Amino acid sequence: MKLLHARVVVPVLTAVSLLTFACASPPEAEKKAADAAVSAATAAGADKYAPSEFSATTAAVKKAESEMSSKAYKEAKASYAAVKDLAEKAATAAAAGKAAAKAEAEKQIADLEGRWKELQGKAEAAVKKLKADQKAVWDTDAKNVAEALEAAKAAVAADAAAAKAKLASIPAVLDKWGADLAALAAPAKAAKKPAATK
């Protein structure tokens, strides 16, 4: 009877031990899936184009890693599933954000090019009134603006945020030249008015 009891108890204890071990093993598959999703979100530019979603993802990663370190594998498994879900949402939001940023950058480029062409026309009309130092500054600014616009056009498809950064200095230059050219044109108009009244 004792032998029969031992034959039943030993396999049952072995099965319980294996079951306990299986439940207590680290959730490696979930961790790999979560890591892959985070990598995809990072590659999609979630840190730039979906910062709040990416921040939530990184917070969830820290929580899951903390649970893994504490050997709270059941909680870690659930946390890695949440990380995967958040990372997938961040990647989707990044794609939408990237498309919106690209459209915005393209519009900004078009607007700045329009303003620039208008100023070039005014500058050509006022070239005789420009002093030598103003002409030299205009030539330098013209070169810089043209290069920045071209660099932004080249960058917009790959990285709209970088394209917008390349455009950042142009509005101030255009504003300055708009004011300078308006000032050059203003005395000519004032001089014509008294001549017309005589």
Structural class of the helices, strands and pairings? mainly alpha
Mean pLDDT: 83
Rough outline: rod-shaped
How much helicity do the residues have? Answer: over 70%
Summarize the main sheet.
none
Poorly predicted regions: 15-22
Tally of contiguous helical segments? 8
CA-CA gap between termini: 134 Å
Using only CA atoms, what is the Rg?
33 Å
What topology emerges from the helices and strands here?
Elements: H1 2-23, H2 28-43, H3 46-49, H4 51-69, H5 73-125, H6 132-156, H7 160-167, H8 170-197
Helix pairs in contact: 2-4, 2-5, 4-5, 5-6, 5-7, 5-8, 6-7
Describe the structure.
It is a single chain. By secondary structure, the protein is mostly helical. The protein is built from 8 helices and no strands. About 4% of the residues have low confidence.
Summarize the structure.
With 198 residues, the protein is an all-alpha fold. 88% of the residues lie in helices and 0% in strands. The protein contains 8 helices and no strands.
Which features characterize this protein?
88% helix, mainly alpha, 198 residues, 8 helices, rod-shaped
